[in-house]
Amino acid sequence: MGYDPANPMQDRITDIGPPHYEQFFPPVIKANYGKWSYHEILAPGVLVHVAESGDECYTVRCASARLISIELIREMCDVADKHCDGFLRFTTRNNVEFMTDSKDRCDALIAELKERSARLPIGGTGASISNMVHTQGWVHCHTPATDASGVVKAVMDELFEYFTSMKLPAQIRVALACCLNMCGAVHASDIAVLGVHRKPPMVDHDAITGLCELPLAISACPLGAVKPKKVTNSKGEEIKSVQVNAERCMFCGNCYTMCPAMPLADPDGDGIAILVGGKVSNAKSAPKFSKLVIPFIPNNPPRWPEVTSVIKHIVEVYAKDAYKYERLGEWAERIGWEKFFEKCDIPFTIKSIDDYRLAYDTWRCTTQFKFTNHIK
Amino acid sequence: MSKHDTPLLDELEKGPWPSFVSDIKRQAEKKPECWDILGQLELSYEEKITHWKHGGIVGVFGYGGGIVGRYSDMPDRFPGVAHFHTVRVNQPSSKFYSTAKLRAICDLWEKYGSGMTNMHGSTGDMILLGTTTEHLEPLFYDLTHELKQDLGGSGSNLRTPACCLGKARCEWSCFDTQAICHHLTMHYQDEVHRPAFPYKFKFKFSGCPNDCVASIARSDLSVIGTWKDDIQIDQAAVQAYIKGEYKVNGGAHDGRDWGPFDIDKEVLALCPTNCMRMNGDELQIQTSECTRCMHCINVMPRALKPGKEQGATLLVGAKAPILDGAQFATMIVPFIKIDPENEFQEVIDFIENIWDWWMENGKNRERTGEAIQRIGLPSFLQIMNIEPIPQHIKEPRSNPYVFWKEEEVEGGWDRDIREFRKRHAQ
After folding, report:
1. Does the beta carbon of B326 lie under 8 angstroms from any beta carbon of chain A?
2. What residues of A are in contact with residue B101 (Cβ under 8 Å)?
3. Across the interface, do B92 and A149 touch by the CB < 8 Å criterion?
4. Interchain pair B272, A285: CB under 8 A
5. Looking at chain B from residue 366 to 425, which residues have their Cβ under 8 Å from any Cβ of chain A?
6. Which of A76, A173, A274, B201 is the most exposed place for a label (fewest CB within 10 A)?
7. What is the pLDDT of residue B7?
8. Residue B134: per-residue pLDDT
9. Looking at CA atoms only, how far is residue A325 from chain B in angstroms?
């Protein structure tokens, strides 16, 4: 029998955790666990891993939108049942990977996937632009400053040739977070698309009493811009509420997270900032944060043309100018950020100069600089 | 629930990248509430603002995490998404699935939810998007009884741990990422499901310094594989790369003609420590100078492999910018054996030392990394009873403001001003 609403605690099972991973390994993975010798990328999106035993695991990587239906998951299962002994996996970057154990089976798998390429395009390996990691946006979140899935779709349509090829100097990791909370953690990406607010929160004095704990709302502000205040609500009652010192607001939205009576989203205030040059890998240089190069682009749904064109331009300039193996941030540091702005035709604004905590670390304290078009 | 006109969203059915709009429409044929996802989203596209309300506390009995409440702020116009809660289902480590398991999850979600998902959420869970409060308990019953699965974390608790695919399909993994990820997930079920922390806490496990799960950028405890001894070199394979017989960087750069492979330029000159050289036909690596960045191994995977004495580095305190700015994780323990034999006890001890301190001293919504910044790295090392070493810093401090303790200063701090004045006139 199933769930009994009259007796909800009956036969209750809790804290069993996820199923053990091993039962989901394809046979070739299980047989060669921990005994892999090397790998090669045979074509964009197609990898072979060779084990010490000589066994081979062929992997075909396909993009997904991350926001996917169970109908599409079932379609993925159909492919895996037909070609992959009923196993598949997903990657950290929302790709789906189909694995098989021979070249012939892999060729049949690729042929099948090519027929489904509108939903399962192959690519995202090596010196390419793999799938974007991203957040929920207007589809399912209460704090976004932009959409996520729609911007990602527009950006990846524009960058698609780089998903299906490997012609860049190094991989470019593009990521999107629809507000500063960054549940997608875009702060260490080669190119980060970040939703930003630009209007301070409003205070809903009619709602705040039942909705918020005022001390939490006040302490939520990192800059002390939220202060207690006695106000009169629309019923004429004097209540305890808060006021916002707008000049101090840095538009992080943390107060709204703590207090739903302080919404800050706005059609004109919200939009997108572009940050570049971050990386996570420790290869060659240490991990780097992404740096803010464009403070604001208005939301322009459904296809955000200003965002997609500037990203494509950065990719193209980098692709032409960087050395082999050089990540976008390594290239920008080698040529100098002044050259980055000049080469990418991005206007430098005062908003790229840090004035938050530890800002001094980013100011230039040397006579070494390049004469670019910024020096008149 | 009927179809809405969605001229703006329909534009996102064009182009080569998979279209979530086409996919939601496909799902809506079976699950008509999906028409209201599109209707409400179209309105957001027109008005450039979200139409989801702030939060709402819902869950299953006995758990404080795993379900995220979500309500439309236009429930009359879009009744199909009036209640549209998120269910986080803990993924199996490294996200391999059987189709039988995935189909069972699809069937469950067809029965109780909208049919829309994220595969996966940023932290790693399977995300089931869109169900009503009254479906939560029956869904949880079927999830645990029939699928033998459980919810992941949300709120101020241990978030669902995640790992790279490790030894399953990678030659570089220096420890068994799945094994420790699964073990600790099981060991800490209470911490995953019942919020008891000042704020969220994340574990992520990467098998090598390439860090494919971005552990160093986003986890409070980042475990990254490394090794102590010599990089393993197959000299014949090095020659095969030099002669162009093997694909450089595993073929990652095959889409452009970069000219013949030049080991001096592409490997030796790019080594961040200059610890490599060619002595005739022999590649030599001075291990004591190597910082294990992976570049040479990435470029010549058939010739070079991590050393044999393998373990992990423990780093602490990464987070995204909210609130005090983004932080990478700070290196705390340079090398530790990741030992399944004793059920990872050294790592567990390390974790619980952090938690004991942070649960006592962390402020509301203060991530571990922020708490460390507040008290300073020296204090954190002392709390953790860890010997300070130069590897903890990039460079020594440039200011002289040392917080000396009284017991460190000869004679202590108690002095008599009158005694002082006897020898020093005012």
Report:
1. yes
2. 19, 24
3. no
4. yes
5. none
6. A274
7. 98
8. 96
9. 8
pLDDT at residue A2, rounded to an integer: 86
Residue B313 backbone phi and psi in degrees, to 5 = -100, 135
Q: Are the C-beta atoms of residues B117 and A73 closer than 8 Å to each other?
A: yes
Burial group, residue A216, by CB count within 10 angstroms (0-12, 13-18, 19+): middle
What does DSSP assign to residue B159? P
The correct answer on CATH 3.30.413.10 for the domain covering B162-227+313-392 is yes
Contact in structure between B302 and A200 (CB atoms under 8 Å): no
Angle, CA B314 vertex, CA B202 and CA A135 arms, to 5° = 30
Going B126 to B127 to B131 to B134, the CA torsion angle's sign is positive
Do A17 and B185 count as a contact with CB atoms less than 8 A apart? yes
Residues 6 or more apart whose CB falls under 8 angstroms from that of B198 comprise B156, B358, B359, B362, B363, B364, B365, B366, B371
- Asked if the Cβ–Cβ distance from A166 to B256 is below 8 Å, we say yes
B111 shares contact with chain A (CB less than 8 Å): no
Task: Count A/B contacts: CB-CB distance under 8 Å.
Answer: 406
What is the residue-level pLDDT of chain B in tens, covering all 426 positions? 679 999 999 999 999 999 999 999 999 999 999 999 999 999 999 999 999 999 778 999 999 999 999 999 999 999 999 999 999 999 999 999 999 999 999 999 999 999 999 999 999 999 999 999 999 999 999 999 999 999 999 999 999 999 999 999 999 999 999 999 999 999 999 999 999 999 999 999 999 999 999 999 999 999 999 999 999 999 999 999 999 999 999 999 999 999 999 999 999 999 999 999 999 999 999 999 999 999 999 999 999 999 999 999 999 999 998 888 899 999 999 999 998 999 999 999 999 999 999 999 999 999 999 999 999 999 999 999 999 999 999 999 999 999 999 999 999 999 999 999 999 999
CA B190 to CA B16: how far, in whole Å?
Answer: 44
Which pLDDT score, from 0 to 100, does residue A358 have?
79
Query: What CATH code would you report for B7-146?
Result: 3.30.70.2500
Q: How far is B419 from chain A (nearest CA, A)?
A: 44
Q: Where are the domains of chain B?
A: 7-146, 162-227+313-392, 232-305
On chain A, the residues whose CB falls within 8 A of the CB of B198 are none
Distance CA B312, CA B334 (A): 8
Task: Kindly state the tokens that stand for B141.
Answer: 């019953």
Q: Under an 8 A CB cutoff, do B26 and A71 touch? A: yes
Please, where are the H alpha helices in B176-228?
177-187, 189-193, 215-218
Contact in structure between A216 and A257 (CB atoms under 8 Å): no
Strands A56-62 and B67-68, sheet pairing: unpaired
| Helix or strand run (H / E) with residue B36 | helix B33-47
Answer for the pair A260, A220: CB distance below 8 angstroms, yes or no: no
Q: Which of A73, A150, A68, A113 is nearest to B13 (CA)?
A: A150
Q: What is the pLDDT of residue B171?
A: 97
ipTM passes above 0.85: yes
Is residue A97 within 8 A of residue A60, CB to CB? The reply is yes
Angle between helical axes of B177-187 and B345-361 (0-180°, round to 10) = 50
* Domains B162-227+313-392 and B232-305 belong to one CATH topology: no
| CB contact (8 A) between residue A94 and residue B86 | no
Q: What CATH number was assigned to the domain covering residues B232-305?
A: 3.30.70.20
With an 8 Å Cβ cutoff, are B61 and A167 in contact? Answer: no
pTM for the whole thing?
0.96
Q: Is A187 helix (H, G, I), strand (E, B) or coil?
A: coil
Name the residue of chain A whose CA is nearest to B179's CA: A21
Beta strands A191-196 and A271-276 are antiparallel
* Structure confidence by residue, pLDDT tens digits, A226-252: 999 999 999 999 999 999 999 999 999
